[in-house]
Amino acid sequence: RKEVEQDPGPFNVPEGATVAFNCTYSNSASQSFFWYRQDCRKEPKLLMSVYSSGNEDGRFTAQLNRASQYISLLIRDSKLSDSATYLCVVLTTNAGKSTFGDGTTLTVKP
Amino acid sequence: DGGITQSPKYLFRKEGQNVTLSCEQNLNHDAMYWYRQDPGQGLRLIYYSQIVNDFQKGDIAEGYSVSREKKESFPLTVTSAQKNPTAFYLCASSLHTDSGNTIYFGEGSWLTVV
User: Fold this and answer.
1) Of A51, A67, A107, B72, which has the most beta carbons under 10 Å away?
2) Would you place residue B101 in the very low, low, confident or very high pLDDT band (cuts 50, 70, 90)?
3) Is A100 in CB contact (< 8 Å) with chain B?
4) Is B105 within 8 Å of A43 when comparing Cβ atoms?
5) What is the pLDDT of residues A66-90, one digit of tens each?
6) Do B50 and A101 touch (CB under 8 A)?
7) What is the overall mean pLDDT for chain A?
8) Distance (Å, rounded) from C-alpha A66 to C-alpha A71?
9) Cα–Cα dist A48/A12, whole Å
10) Which residues of B touch A51 (CB under 8 A)?
11) pLDDT tops 60 at residue B99
C-alpha cells in the first residue's frame, strides 16, 4: 500500500461545478498536510496548507480527518483555469521528509 | 528575487555518460530535495539533505549521487548506473524538514537519454 493515495481521475467537470478530491495516508504519525497544484510540464506550487480545523481560501476548502487519515480539497464554482493536477503532500517529521501523492487530474470544460 | 534555480532546463545525455544537474537556492533554507517525475506519474524522492555535509537516500537513490558542500547548493549527478534516466527532475527546498515547513520547487530539468 502506498503511503499517500489519491484517486488519479481524470475528473472532467463543467465550469461552475463543485468538485472534491480525497487523499488518504497510512502513517498515523503524520503531522503536516498540504495541497499543491501542478500545471502540465511545470513544477508543483503550493495551493494551501491543511489545518486540523479545516481552512478556506476563496473557492478552495481543505479539510483534515485524522481519525480516518484522509484530507480533502473542495473547489467551488470551477474555472477553466483550475484545470491542473492536484497533489496532496503529507509530512512525517520523524521520517524527515514529505511524501507526495501521485496527483488527481482535473479538467474544467466550458 | 529569492528562489530556486535549476540548470540546465533541458539536457540530452548519451547512454553511459554521467550528467550533473545544478540546483541553487537563495532562500536560506536548511533542507533540500531532489525528486524525479515520469510522465503521468507522481513525484519520487531521490535524495534529501537536512543540513550541509549531510544527506540521506530517498526512495529511488540507486544510480544517483549528490553532495551538499554549501547550504545553497545541492547538485544531482545521474550516473551511468541509472538504467532509465529520462525524466523530469525537480529540486526543492524547505526551511527545515520539521512540521509545517512548506516545500518550494525549482522549475525543473528535463533529461533525455539519446
Assistant:
1) B72
2) confident
3) yes
4) yes
5) 999 999 999 999 999 999 999 999 9
6) no
7) 92
8) 8
9) 22
10) none
11) no
Residue A31 zone, left/alpha/beta (φ > 0; ψ -120 to 50; rest): alpha
> What burial class does residue B62 get, using C-beta atoms within 10 Å of its C-beta: 0-12 exposed, 13-18 middle, 19+ buried?
exposed
Cell numbers at residue B54, please? 549531510
CA distance B32 to chain A (A): 10
A 21-60: CB under 8 A from B: 31-32, 34, 41-46, 49
**Which region holds residue A93: left if phi is over 0, alpha if psi is between -120 and 50, else beta?**
alpha
What does the alpha-carbon distance between residue B45 and residue B94 come to, in Å, rounded to a whole number? Answer: 14
**Amino acid at the residue B13:** R
C-alpha cell at B64: 544517483
Residues of A within 8 A of B97 (CB-CB) are 91, 93, 96-98
